[in-house]
Structure formats: C-alpha cells, structure tokens
Amino acid sequence: MLLSLTKRPINPTKFSDRLLARLRYPASFHAFHTYPRLNAAYNMPQSPKIVKVEGLPADEAKWVEFQKISWQDQTGKNRVWEAAARKTRGKAGVDAVAISTIIRHPSRPPSTIIILQYRPPVDAVCVELPAGLVDEGESPSDASVRELHEETGYKGKLQFISPTIVSDPGLSTANMQLATVEVNLKEGDADPEQALDDGEFIERVVVPLDELYDRLVQYDKEGKTVDARLWHWAAGYHAAKTML
Predict the structure, then answer these.
(1) What is the DSSP letter of 165?
(2) CATH second-level architecture of 12-45+62-242?
(3) Is the pLDDT of residue 217 over 90?
(4) What is the pLDDT, as a whole number, of residue 195?
C-alpha cells in the first residue's frame, strides 16, 4: 500500500484547496471533514471536461426519452407539452432517492454528509445530497440505505422517507423520495471506505449541521453549483434557527 501511494501523482490544486480549507473553516470543521483518500474521487490524471455536445438520437438514448404530451387546458383548448422522462422507472413508481443524513457522535456536534461530483449537463462540480436511482424490485427505503453506503461508506438506519416529490415538473416527469438516515458513531470509529461503481468520482464531506448553510454559500463563491434539494434543506434549517 505504501508503495502505491508513492506512485500516484499528487494534484497540487487539490492540496492547496485543502490547505485553504484549514485556514478558512473553524476547528469543529476539521474534526469532521473527510480529507481526500486514494479512491475514485482523487488524484486523477486530469480534470473532467466537455469534449462535444450534439443531438442524441432516440434509439441511442439509454436513460432518458423525450415525450410529446397532448393535453387539454381548463378551457378545453388542445395543447402540447414537451417533457423528458427516465426510461428506468421500476415497479415502485419512484425514479430515485436523495438522502439527508444525521450523524451522531458522543463528543462531536450533529453533522450531515454532502457529496461533490462533476455533472456534465451543467459542466460544473455540484454539491449534493447523496442520491441514486431505485433499482428494479427495490423499495425507495432500501435504496436510500444502499445508496448512502455506496456513495459515502456510512451505514445507517432509515428514520423517515417523504412522499413522492418532483423537482422540475415543467421539464421532466422525474420523481423521487427524500429519506432521512441516522448514523450513530462511537469514539474511535474509523472513516468508512466508499463503495463506488466504475465511473463514479464522488468526494464526500462531513459537515456539522450548524455550519452547513455557510459552507454551501462558500462553495458557490468557489464556483461550484449547489443542488436545489440540498440548498432547500439547508436554507430551511438555517431559517428555523435564525428567523423563527
């Protein structure tokens, strides 16, 4: 293992970012932040980049399809709506889950897990909740626990799962459920290893809940894009603390 460490290239930008983070954030942040390990998210030979954007023929689309929806409005007038739809929806009727995590530790403040990953459609590193598609024959509840473990390494217990919700109904038929999973840690527990699939490049970050809103604001200033679901969750928590 030590030999392999010496052979991997060091990314000086990543190193400087971590150094700046140590200067920027308080001590409570350092107690929780999971610094980069040698896994799929780090020490890559290059940064991701868009090579070409072109139209996608319907017979080549694996994950999505365009739909032409003919409907009548409240006056009886015929109208047409264009929408994108996932091709992977299973019998559960739910496309995906996103997971808000509550980490409890004997000597540390309650925290949550966010992930950073590059998203080609917006050509940016996105700051998100752990999330993933519901597999065929799987319930959204089971998918939430599985996806949290795969993307972050942490195992927890489902505490709540939302009704089926939508985030962009003017564009897509996609839906999801939002789960809350509780992770209970003990003193001395080691950081778990992620179980990422091939092609997944995900950085996990553990953040004290009281610092989450400010951390997202800082990520935006750094040029990252914050996912709406995570922002709404953090903004709601922030409003409850500061405005009510």
Answers:
(1) B
(2) Alpha-Beta Complex (3.90)
(3) yes
(4) 94
Pairing status of strand 203-208 against strand 176-184: unpaired
pLDDT reading at 12 higher than 70: no
Q: How many CA atoms lie within 13 A of 229 on its CB side?
A: 22
Pairing of β 176-184 and β 96-105? parallel
Strands (E), 12-90: 64-72, 78-86
The residues near 5 (Cβ < 8 Å, ≥ 6 apart) are 38
| Token pair for 231 | 């922002």
Ordered by start, the domain boundaries in the chain are: 12-45+62-242
Flag whether pLDDT at 235 surpasses 60: yes
> 179 pLDDT exceeds 70?
yes
Please tell me the number of Cα atoms within 13 Å of 172 on its side-chain side.
14
- pTM confidence score: 0.82
Query: Rounded CA gap, 140 and 94, in Å?
Result: 7
Burial class (CB in 10 A: 0-12, 13-18, 19+), 112: buried
Lowest mean pLDDT of 8-12, 118-122, 199-203, name the range. Answer: 8-12
Task: Please state the separation of Cα 129 from the chain's center in Å.
Answer: 3
